[in-house]
Amino acid sequence: MSHYEERLERDLSRIKQQLALLADCVDDALTSAVRALLNGNDAMAYATVLGDQRINAISRALDRMCHAFIGVHLPSAGHLRLITAVIHTNIGLERVGDYAVTIARESVHVVKRPDALIKRSVEMLASESRQMFKQAAAAFIEGNCDKARATMVMADQVERTFDVAFSDLVGEAGQFSTEDLFAYLGVFNALERVSDQAKNVCEDTVFAVTGQTKAARVFRILFLDEDNTVLGPTAEAIGRKNFPAGGEYRSAGRQAGTLAPEAVSALQDLGVDLGRHRPRALDLSHQDLSEFQVIVSLQGPIKSYIANVPFHTVALEWDFGAGVADLPDEQQRARYGELCRQIAVQVSNLMETLRGEEPS
Hints:
Layout: H1 3-39, H2 42-73, H3 77-109, H4 116-142, H5 145-152, H6 154-171, H7 178-210, E1 219-225, H8 231-242, E2 247-253, H9 261-269, H10 286-289, E3 294-297, E4 314-317, H11 329-355
Parallel strand pairs: 1-2, 1-3, 3-4
Helix pairs in contact: 1-2, 1-3, 1-4, 2-3, 3-7, 4-5, 4-6, 4-7, 5-7, 6-7, 8-11
């Protein structure tokens, strides 16, 4: 190994050591912040807030080391990807430190400590988020793509735990003041954001090692109508046909109606194939519904279908009014065509919003 190569590897090693130090300090801050909240330890909470200054100093030093590495070594290919990923990961870790500060600040202002149910929610959410964070940091420092990919899937579990914690908090609303409720919601949100940053670190790991960039997100979308015979199935079919890579589409009705043969024929002529569709009623649990990023009502208010929309789900209302069956026969085909055009425009606008200017 040449002198230059030895220096390059030595500088890389120092950068990784600094990153590992930052990750350890951030994890310690998270641990202390949660412990302070659960135990009502204001001294520990304030120490966590003050300790963020050291985290920021380590982060700034790491940033300088990365830019110095670029200036000295003019890296390319793998080394450039790694330094780019380190700079991005450095920002993510510093933000996790900020989340710890948020939890610590909330801790010293809450009047009532969490009861058994909320304490369990905090402990579960903190445990899962910290585990994901530690694994993500280790995967990055080791350059282990397999560990990074395995860690990324943990984000879904953290999101589900957040939904349960939020539901528990709503159920306990009468036991806490409004200020305390918002404080605990802030804590839950901060802990969930830890998992989001951990997922970003995993994606940076994969990029640094393989050059693969983050895959475009696939959104799960549910369309609702009265009887799941025309509107919902049409939106589902249009989404699947026009934007197959952009989403996973389902539809359901308040009840399962009967799909008329003339409707199938008319829609087939318009390029919408419902030949294999079987109307189905909405029978999904709250946890099942939380798997959808977007739920769209095509007839009436969304609350008439779902009393409590999951926290992470976006609810939309595209009210297309009464069904086609209520129209005279001579007007039905024209109405089918109008509905298809309107639904196609709405689906296209939605996917453009979710995925950008080229959603397909």
